[in-house]
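_Backbone structure tokens_
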Amino acid sequence: MLARPATPTEPSGSDVRTEANLSRLRKENSDLRRTLAMYEEAIRQLAIENDALCSGGTVLPLPSRSTPAPPGPS
């Protein structure tokens, strides 16, 4: 007897929902990581300014980096 080649099966509704959910969560994770990086940079700059002010130095504004705007609500 010959073996029949495997045929791809259609994804069930549950599989489609799971994949859509995973895709949404991956995008949300990327967005949150981008937002976190912006907050980290802002905190770093504030810490530098605070240290300069506490030590009696002059605070010079740093040029802002061009970063994309945080994602808006979906």
Residues 15-54 form one domain. The chain has a mean pLDDT of 81.
